[in-house]
Design brief:
The complex is a heterodimer of chains A (about 130) and B (about 425). Chain A is mainly alpha-helical and about 130 residues long. Chain A contains four helices and no strands. Chain A is about 70% helix and about 0% strand. Chain B has about 425 residues and is an alpha/beta fold. In chain B, strand 15, helix 7 and strand 16 form a beta-alpha-beta unit. In chain B, helix 3 packs parallel to helix 10 and helix 6 runs parallel beside helix 7. Chain B folds into three domains: about 80 residues, no CATH class; about 150 residues, FAD/NAD(P)-binding domain, CATH 3.50.50.60; about 150 residues, FAD/NAD(P)-binding domain (3-Layer(bba) Sandwich), CATH 3.50.50. In chain B, about 55% of the residues are buried. The chains are: A mainly alpha (about 130), B alpha/beta (about 425). The interface between A and B is medium-sized, with 30 and 36 residues. Bound molecules: flavin-adenine dinucleotide. Flavin-adenine dinucleotide binds next to helix 3, helix 4 and helix 10 of chain B.
Amino acid sequence: MDMLTPAGILGISLALFGLPLIAAGGAVALAGLIAWIGIARAEGGRARLCAARLPAVAIGAVVGVGMAVALLAATQSGLSSLNGVLDWVVFLAPAAGAGVGAALVAWPVLALLRPASGRPAQQPAVEGDGLRHV
Amino acid sequence: MTAPGVQLGRRGLFALGAGGIAAATLPQAARARERTTARIVIAGAGAAGITMAARLSQRLEGARITVLDRRERHVYQPGLTLVGSGVWTPEKVISTNAQWMPRGVAWIREAVAEFDPVGNKVVTDTGRQVPYDFLVVAAGIELNYAGIEGMSEALIGREGIGSVYAGPEAAAATWREMARVAERGGVLLHGRPATEMKCAGAPLKLALLSHARLARAGTRGRSEIVYNAHNDATFSVPAIHRRVVELFGERGIRINYGHVLKAVDPGRKIATYRTANGEVELRYDFIHVVPPQRTPAALRNSPLAWQSGPLAADGWVEADRRTLRHPRFPNVFTVGDATGVPRGKTAATVKKMTPVATDNLVDVIAGREPRAAFNGYTSCPLITDIGRAMLVEFDYEGRLVPSFPFVDPLRESWFGWLVKDQLIHAVYEAMLGGWV
Ligand SMILES: Cc1cc2nc3c(=O)[nH]c(=O)nc-3n(C[C@H](O)[C@H](O)[C@H](O)COP(=O)(O)OP(=O)(O)OC[C@H]3O[C@@H](n4cnc5c(N)ncnc54)[C@H](O)[C@@H]3O)c2cc1C
């Protein structure tokens, strides 16, 4: 199919989303990836990533459901419009994609904001009697 | 290339981005450009004319390409049914030809008044003579509202008369009339002309969409929807006709076969149809008028038109149905709605015709025989509801030729609707840029 040539895919994507939006999406994904690698390699980074995993999944789920609702609203359709497996796959794929994408971007961001223990990063850890021992 | 009254076209960010990146990703063979100093004139800057200009300027180095069209506005016509049913706003289908005109192509903002294929020139409506070595005819279709007694474009949006064919404003006015009837219910008449026409699916879509609107408004039970087919079928492809009959049956849309709209009387809200048994009058609260269609007068009256046969009457341009080359004037190619071939007359057809015509014209310029063949591909996503459509695609032989092998072309789907509502406009714009 001519639409599936590199030029076709590019042309259609540009017409659909526009160059600024595609560039912004690419920049966010790249920044997320760099942040993720940086955190994973830093001392205690893995623990931070572990702690941020669940909240990132939650954000992904919210974005995924939001995407599904937005898709139906944007196409003036309802769930009753879906007719067969293909429709469900086509409906769920972008929602899942958006959800996974959001979770992946949120993950390193949350890891940066939260310490390994799960307590907010801004509060210094307090030990024993509550006094800070220097 | 500049001349008095000629302005170079501009491309937007979209085309710039697509051009740069796509050029880097295209295979070398596809980028090999033929050197020529040929003068190529393209008559018409609609979907077909602009796409040809884009493709030819990608394939040729040094060619002097001139597009002639007086119209500044570019209308994404496949969106008119969505405007006419209140799904889209009219603004969504309007852009400018300047936005899409390829860089380096000269655009003369005048219409062709005379085609002179013997003298290898066209004469514009200001008397300017534009000589050519090769001519691409892409002047589209003329809507002949006057071919229906009592009807004129000015009536669209009044007295229950709608017609999405006349453009975005007419489509919006059609929706206002349809919405008015949907509030109370009434008799809605649909149909198509007996001539060749662009997007033969559009009148069917309008009938189905009017059903959807009435059903949503809760007035379907109080209404009657009638589809008047011009012959003994709702569609020229038998498999699609049978499916349409099924869909109409499920929705209670009555079909009158052999009914051709002859006259409308807006005062009495009566439509008169020619039938095999004489004239029949039908009362309406809403009527969707699809006018008889033919090529623009300059083409109709030119030697380029078929001189005999079924396509001669309305001036369709003679063309070899495979190569799209004129049999009597071999330096002339035709693309788009004006082409005198048995099927086509959709933007999807333009998408398949233009690469064929480009390849063949480049071959002829290079002294080779044209090799590419057009298979009659025609497509018109048949909207069956707001939220559902069928992606029907077929060729000269009436075979269904789905682009997506996993899609059943005769099954209503949300995927089909998504393609129509969200994707095809982008594909159309990519086509204008010559990328698909
Ligand atoms: C209501 C409606 C619904 C449609 N739905 C679909 C759909 O769902 N899917 C689909 O694929 N297609 C659809 N189409 C059809 C599609 O829009 C046309 O097939 C397509 O636009 C044809 O392109 P064209 O360039 O041949 O004609 P056009 O786009 O009409 O352009 C012709 C151009 O020629 C110019 N011209 C005319 N006379 C002259 C002259 N003498 N000199 C110079 N220039 C001249 C005109 O100004 C115009 O700009 C629909 C069309 C309509 C009206």
